[in-house]
Amino acid sequence: MATIALDPRLDKKTSDFIAQKHRMYIDGKFVNAASGKTLSVYNPATGEVMAQVPEAEAVDVDQAVRAARRAFDEGPWTKMSPSQRGRLILKLADLMEQHLEELAEIESMDNGKPVSVARVADVPLAVDLFRYMAGWATKIMGHTFPISFPGEYLSYTLREPIGVVGQIIPWNFPLLMAAWKLGPALAAGCTVVLKLAEQTPLSGLRLAELIHEAGFPEGVVNVLTGFGEGAGAPLAAHDLVDKIAFTGSTEVGRLIVHAAAGNLKKVSLELGGKSPAIIFPDADLERAIPGTASAIFFNHGQCCCAGSRLFAHESIFDRVVEGVSDIASKIRVGNGLDPHTEMGPLVSEEQFEKVTGYINSGLSEGAKATAGGKKAADRGYFVQPTVLTRTTPEMKVVKEEIFGPVVCAVPFTDTDLDRIAREANDTPYGLAASVWTRDISIANKMAKRIRSGTVWINCHNVFDAALPFGGYKQSGWGREMGSEVLNNYTEVKAVTTAL
Ligand code: NAP
Ligand code: MG
User: Fold this and answer.
1) How far apart are CA 442 and CA 341, in angstroms?
2) Which of 175, 252, 452 to mutate for ligand 1's pocket (most ligand atoms within 8 Å of CB)?
3) Distance from the alpha carbon of residue 228 to the mean position of ligand 2, in angstroms
4) Quick one: which H or E segment has residue 174?
């Protein structure tokens, strides 16, 4: 068990939860891993171990999948009315809202993000997502079809839950990613086995307690903690799982696709990005400069849609770089529990090594840091918000997803929108982009030319439960949120009656 003293700034409820003996949630019960093994959970602000959680392996995954299978095939879940399912999801949202402060503190301790951010973003967005999806439970429906086959027929479609769903999520928005996955699956009537990220399992385990308290029937939601290879891989490969939904790296996304091939389970993927933010010379720089700074520095750049390539027209490039660098150097980096902190530590030592490695590789290849460029403290995983200029298109910092607070600023001279779009699209990813201009015609022409699942105009990182989100190209398959996500969790059945 963890022995370290928890931060005195925490509410007692939060400290008690973090210090408790953690168990996974399988078939309506809180259980240890069958092997009894645990894995350590670190506080990224100090690098110290603060908790142990069970380390699920194939045998635990199998138990959870069988529980979800029973709940789907025999259990009360699929026989419940859509309205009853919707009400349970609403009850969960209410419980989360009642525990908002505690969930925000857990998220800050586990992920490192400022508690002030988790309080206004992560937790309320997760609550909102569940409420929005609860509304869909009663509105998932088919169509009727006038068919031309000779004779008289009545044809209609049924939209049915896909079945048992495996879900694997990352550590950047632990609670919100759990909500994005669970909300639509439950609204559609599926049962779920959710594997949390090894770095950030705590808010998901607290959510499991609230799911239990809300009264979801046994086996409908199962929540596992464990490593990707030990628990994620057997979940993705399991023959009794009908569908796997994954958010994380493109590299692991490919492994998921291979693992799913055995029983050809359905797959949806939300993967990496290298999103462009493009500032035209006529843009309102009073908005575009803070907007593009926040596009990269929000959540420490640990966003799949982070605006990590900043393109600015040469006539305004110096002003943009100066403005964004000025903001970067003034961001208060510190412990997420400090109310003045604007940026916390990166999530893990591994991410810290990865991000500082990218910065060093850029600098050694000739890039210049106009802000940051170094680690930001002697302990914990803090990195300075960094702006790189004088990059070339071949550099790793420009080509690869860094997933940290590092932006590459690149000037453009072109006025031809096709050529600007070609440069913006010159990446295997296609998750998001932002365009900054006062000219609505340029803005919408660019929106059409950019190959990505989201284009923001004069804003970045605007999310809503009603808006579909997902990737073109290697940024993924399928969409999260909105009505679109329901396609991930339903099958369509065409029924035809000869009259
Ligand atoms: P990752 O390895 O793709 O992890 C995402 C999830 O997949 C975690 O739950 C992970 O478990 C699990 N996983 C890992 N290997 C697996 C396997 N073979 N089969 C099934 N599941 C597996 O991402 P990461 O290592 O946390 O971060 C690496 C990079 O991924 C980041 O630097 C960033 O570029 C990208 N990333 C993207 C997003 C996004 O939102 N698109 C989010 C996070 C990271 P563990 O927790 O045990 O690893
Ligand atoms: Mg990993």
Assistant:
1) 37
2) 252
3) 6
4) helix 174-188
Ligand 1, atom 42, lies closest to the CA of 248
Centre of ligand 2 to C-alpha 355, Å, is 15
Nearest CA to ligand 1 atom 48: 228
Cα R_g (the chain), whole angstroms: 23
Å from CA of 305 to ligand 2 middle: 19
Query: Residue 439 burial by CB count (10 A; 0-12/13-18/19+): exposed, middle or buried?
Result: middle
What are residue 401's phi and psi, to 5 degrees? Answer: -75, 120
Q: Per the structure block, which two tokens stand in for 422?
A: 């070609």
Chunked into runs of 10 residues, the chain (499 residues) has average pLDDT values of: 72 96 98 98 96 98 98 94 98 99 98 98 98 98 98 98 98 98 98 98 98 98 98 98 98 98 98 98 98 98 98 98 98 97 97 98 98 95 98 97 98 96 98 98 98 98 98 98 98 98
Most informative mutation of 249, 298, 402, 429 for ligand 1 (most atoms within 8 A of CB)? 249
Distance CA 477, CA 146 (A): 32
The residues that are catalytic are 270, 304
**What domains appear along the chain, each with residue ranges and CATH number?**
12-271+476-495 (3.40.605.10), 276-464 (3.40.309.10)
Report how far apart, in Å, the C-alpha atoms of 1 and of each of 202, 208, 384, 387 are. Answer: 14, 20, 33, 41
Q: Which ligand is nearest to the CA of 248?
A: 1
Phi, psi for residue 381 in degrees, rounded to 5 = -105, 55
DSSP 8-state assignment for residue 58: H
Closest ligand, as measured to the CA of 403: 1
CA distance 319 to 290: 12
C-alpha 229 to ligand 2 mean position (Å): 9
Which residue CA neighbors atom 4 of ligand 1 most closely? Answer: 248
Which tokens belong to 267? 């797959």
CB-defined site of ligand 1, < 6 Å: 168-172, 195, 197-199, 227-229, 232-233, 236, 247-249, 252, 255-256, 270-272, 304, 354, 401, 403
